[in-house]
Each structure stands twice: as C-alpha cells, then as structure tokens.
Amino acid sequence: MSSVAPAMRANPVREKLRAGGNAFGVMAFEFFTPGLAPVLAASGAEFVLLDMEHSGVTEQTLDVYRTLRDEGRDNVGIVIQSYLRRSLDDVRSLAGMRPTIVICHPRTRWTSC
Prior knowledge:
Strands 1-2-3-4-5 form a five-stranded mixed sheet, covered by helices on one side. Strand 4 and strand 5 form a beta hairpin. 32% of the residues lie in helices and 19% in strands. It is α/β, with parallel strands linked by helices.
C-alpha cells in the first residue's frame, strides 16, 4: 500500500493572493437562481463559494456544487458547517472531486482546506 498522497490541484486564486494580487469572487447564499453559473462567469469572478450556513436545502446545494464541478468549473467551492452530524459524510462524498471546501463553525472563524 502506497503512503503517497495524490497531488493537490492548482489553486490560481491562492497563488494570485500569495503574489500580492487581488482576487474577485462571490459568496452565494441564494443560488437556486436559473443561470447563476453563466452570470457569475460573465461577471469575471475568479471564484464562487456556495454557502449552506442558512440553508435548509443541504443536499440540493451539494448537488449544485457537484454539477458545477462536473461542468469543469474548478473555481467553485462549498462551505460545510462543521457542527452538523452529516458534515463529515458530506466531505467524504466530495473527496473524489478534489474539492475546495471551507469548514465553518459558529464559534470560530473560517478554516479553509
């Protein structure tokens, strides 16, 4: 059994920020809007985060994320709430996509992984 982890995919936004540049992005709370992805793409956004903190539609949000990633939109991330019982399973279900995940807990600040 190999102990070598697969390489992480490139993160152009992080690279740009580390080089002292700026990145423009959107954190979407209400994303069940027809055509959200093309509108965001046309806006020039370099990244999009789908937030589920105030969402009663967690599974639908994960489906939207999967669809966007399947369409080749690697600049889309998802915010997972750490205090939900299902969160670890949600992260595991996305692991094969090499996702961009932000873990959030009500008592702490954002933690990105």
